Every structure is written in structure tokens, then in C-alpha cells.
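TICKET: design request
STATUS: open
ATTACHED STRUCTURE:
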């Protein structure tokens, strides 16, 4: 499977400019990648339990929170996971982080919510997401293979 999505290719899908539009594109990219991996996808905007609902062919259902970020002025990609009354990753099964590079390429990290032991508000990828070697690097996945919702441990 050879999948390559980048933000410049998808800008025509934006109905809202700015960060909210980037979030919409992130959800769209994540849904395409999950579909390419065999999941059936539904967008979940009726409750605060993830952005997507993914059904695996085995019958398992997963709630997926999608977070998309661009590089900030200090060189890090910051993903807001919890903000009172706005967003709460703890109600999902997986978090998909999409780090968007300057060229518009998306580098995905798929983190099982159960692997986050204490409530955190932000995850920061502090260097190039393709070569990042920090705490969250074990969750990096390849766009060329779609996305797999699985636990590392």
C-alpha cells in the first residue's frame, strides 16, 4: 500500500481557515489512513468521546481522538490533549497525532490512551517528527502502511 497525503494536496477540502481547518484536514487524513488499513470509519461529533469511530473487521470498535499540529516558532509540534470543556483524550481508545511539516507532509503517531498513565494536557514533539527519538517515538507509524490501532506493550 502506498499512501501519501500532504496538507497542500488537501487544502481544497478546507471549509474553515486556520487551526480549525487544519484539525478538519487532520481528521480527514486519519480517516483515509484508517480506511486504507481496513477499518470502517464514522465521524463522531455528537459526544466528546473521540473524533472518529473505527470498526475493525474483527468486530472491535475503537474511539479515536485526532490531534494535528504544525511546527511552532520554538521548533516543537504541540498537541493539546486536554482543555476543560473543550477536549479530553481520556474518553477515547487511541490518540492519533499528525505532525505536519513545512512541506505539508503528515507524520502520524498512534498512542493507545491506556499508555498515558497520568492526565496530561500537551504532548510535544521537540524535533523533526521523522527522526524524533523521544518518549513518544515508539508510536510513530508510516503513512505508506496506513494506520494500525494496536497496543505496543
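STATUS: resolved
RESOLUTION: sequence designed for all positions
ATTACHED SEQUENCE:
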Amino acid at each position: 500500500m502506498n499512501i501519501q497525503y500532504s496538507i497542500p494536496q488537501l487544502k481544497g477540502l478546507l471549509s474553515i481557515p486556520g487551526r480549525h481547518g487544519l484539525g478538519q484536514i487532520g481528521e480527514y487524513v486519519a480517516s483515509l489512513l484508517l480506511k486504507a488499513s481496513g477499518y470502517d470509519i464514522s465521524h463522531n461529533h455528537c459526544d466528546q468521546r473521540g473524533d472518529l469511530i473505527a470498526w475493525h473487521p474483527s468486530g472491535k470498535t475503537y474511539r479515536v481522538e485526532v490531534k494535528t499540529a504544525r511546527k511552532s516558532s520554538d521548533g516543537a509540534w504541540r498537541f493539546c490533549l486536554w482543555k476543560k470543556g473543550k477536549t479530553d483524550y481520556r474518553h477515547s481508545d487511541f490518540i492519533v497525532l499528525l505532525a505536519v511539516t513545512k512541506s505539508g507532509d503528515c507524520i502520524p503517531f498512534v498512542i493507545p490512551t491506556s499508555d498515558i498513565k497520568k492526565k496530561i494536557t500537551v504532548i510535544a514533539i521537540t524535533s523533526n517528527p521523522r527522526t524524533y527519538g523521544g518518549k513518544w517515538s515508539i508510536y510513530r507509524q508510516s503513512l505508506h502502511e496506513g494506520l494500525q490501532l494496536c497496543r505496543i506493550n
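CLOSING REMARK: The two ends are 26 Å apart (CA to CA). DSSP finds two helices and nine strands in the chain.
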